[in-house]
Amino acid sequence: RRTGRPLVTLKLALTLDGRMAARDGSARWITSETTRTMVHAARLRADAIVVGAGSVLHDDPQLTVRHIPAARQPRRVFVDATGRVSADAAIFGAGGQTIAAVTDRVPHEVRTAWKEAGAEVMVLPASARGVDLAALLDELGRAGCLDVLCEGGARLASSLLGEDLVDRLEIHYGPRIVGRGGPDLGDIGVRSLRDARAWNLIELQRSDGDIRATFER
Asked: Model-level pTM?
């Protein structure tokens, strides 16, 4: 309400050694069913859920609230700078509003297919990382979104952190170790510990063998 932008929560599911997936890309499931139900409760509180194109291509998520009663569904936003997501993806047919956050590099026929699948296409400026995420947050704020939950993947998370757009971190640690080779965060502009933002731990919770740590900037 002060800035015109929503509060941005970045949710990450990590193994104990900080990986988002195993070497083959598999990430289902790092955390327990109980923890995943908690994520659905967080979705219900959010006005919009944001994911990157890579997450849509790899996981084909619905991004809906399930497993708990839900009187409404949050907006579902996917960020795709070049038009990689198929109009047949599950994110288009799950009920509620779908928004494609794109640049003008997305071909006209792809945008048309998305619109025919029921999505709103939001053309935004480009940045060095793809879609200008600050501009996206401005638009979501103008659309009345106060609370946005970002669920990945690694590239979107890295961009949000690199552009200092995250207000709250929710890190869900599953009790597994996968070693080297799995996806992790990319370059966020930190060259030394002096450059790294410090976060305030506000909550630590156990969840059926998992640990959920919540931090605020």
From this structure: 0.90
